[in-house]
Design a protein that fits this description.
By secondary structure, the protein is of the alpha+beta class. It contains four helices and seven strands. The protein starts with a helix and ends with a strand.
């Protein structure tokens, strides 16, 4: 299952809307939590660590067999191995210093995370969409890395 750009925008809008508004209509179907809460979002613990370290090989163990990867302005549907190579190149050009999750949300068997990656002297917004198949094993279906722009 692939997420479309429309799905990505809706998810980002939901995450931003939920964190910006104290009470919302989506509270029963979409949940946000403080970033230090484990449990339901523990799937992102390793992913967060690998992003902070720039470890494309370990991060790729969380990739679906085929996934959508967008790095800055280059968007590709690719295999796990191709995605690993794309991230390896990105991390070589932009050495990560830290990664800080800013939003986490879930809906059904889907989990979303948005965070800020400090790498190569720049800030990048990272958005990850993962889905669970049988056995609650989550795999990344879509990974987006975009330059953070000032408001």
């Amino acid at each position: 299952m692939r997420f479309s750009v429309h799905t990505a925008l809706v998810a980002v809008a939901l995450c931003i809307g939920i964190s910006a508004v104290g009470q919302n209509k989506f509270q029963t179907s979409v949940k946000t939590i403080p970033q230090n809460t484990a449990g339901e979002f523990s799937v992102f613990a390793s992913i967060t660590k690998y992003l902070a370290l720039g470890d494309a090989v370990s991060l790729s163990s969380w990739f679906a067999d085929n996934l959508e990867v967008t790095v800055i302005s280059s968007n590709r549907n690719c295999s796990r191995k191709q995605a690993q190579e794309i991230l390896r190149s990105f991390f070589e050009a932009n050495t990560p210093r830290s990664f800080q999750p800013t939003h986490k949300a879930s809906e059904g068997n889907k989990k979303y995370m948005i965070g800020l990656l400090n790498a190569g002297g720049e800030l990048f917004q990272v958005t990850i969409y993962a889905t669970a198949s049988a056995g609650d094993t989550y795999k990344i279906q879509q990974l987006i890395i975009a330059r953070q722009t000032a408001y």
